[in-house]
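User: Here's a chain of 336 residues. Predict its fold as tokens.
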Amino acid sequence: MAKSKAPSILEAITAIKKRKFKPIYYFFGEDSYNLTAALHTLEEAFKPLLLSEFDKETIYSEDRSIIDILGLATAFPFGSEKKLIIVKEAEKIKDKKPLKDYASSPAEFTVIAFFHNGSITNLNSEPFKSLDTNEYLYEAKELKGKNLIDWLIGLAEEKGKKLSEENAQVLVDIVGESRNMLEDQLEKICIFLNEKKEITLESIQQVSSELKQFNIFDLQNAIGVRDKTKSLLIANNLLDNGVEPTFIITMLTRYLMGLAKIPELQSKNTPVQEAARIVGTHHFYYPNYVKAKNLFSDQKLVEVFRALLKADVSVKTTSTDEKTVITLLIAEILHN
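Assistant: Prediction complete.
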């Protein structure tokens, strides 16, 4: 059976922190955050072993063959017991197959770490199969959903702050799923809070507003009151600041699906906090959801979901300008 996944890069990072080094690491994946974390952890953990600056080398792969790189790995250290070689942009190495033989008998005095940006299509091809067999292959996967929320809560705890699951989700909704951006925003919130221990919804909102940029909640609110001019202004601001159109479409779909659930929740007299959780928002925002639903009939929501699907397909399968796609989508959502 074809292998579809490799061990998590987090396993390697944990071992490296304990200075349990392997002779080879081949890190790959879509998660640039953990690739960077693995690099930083390895460099810091290896420092005590480096007696000479000549025993650490960083290589960019574009202009180096794998034979040249492995030649450096088999050369003895200059003045240290072990040497460290960092190979960046390993995805650009054209012929990696010689790594197969090196993986079976690596130099004992060298730790060589390859950093490959992006996925690997076939883990059963060489040299990846041999790297995996010898437990040198690790994947950096982007965190999604609850795993991302748990990571964010844990990061807040490391900084001495308490962050609820509900407020962690709000922060992800505002900032997006980039862990670099989430960490940066969390650091700003911690500075803003000073000695206060709890990260509240109010602190998240206040720090977010100080960025002087719109967020996805602003767009949802503008659509919720059917303000076309403001909706287009916010959407264009989001796109200009690097927000992906697929993220906008996903979040609007989630928002409008939440609106569609409100009549049933009202008929059951569902408590506000529980209703907010079901529609996917903070209870602070739930009254706005109820008001927005009054402006969108069930038939209109059916038309809106068709428009969202059309926009999603257009972004993923055509060369249509992103702003054009989002502009047309908002026009259809708010068309009477």
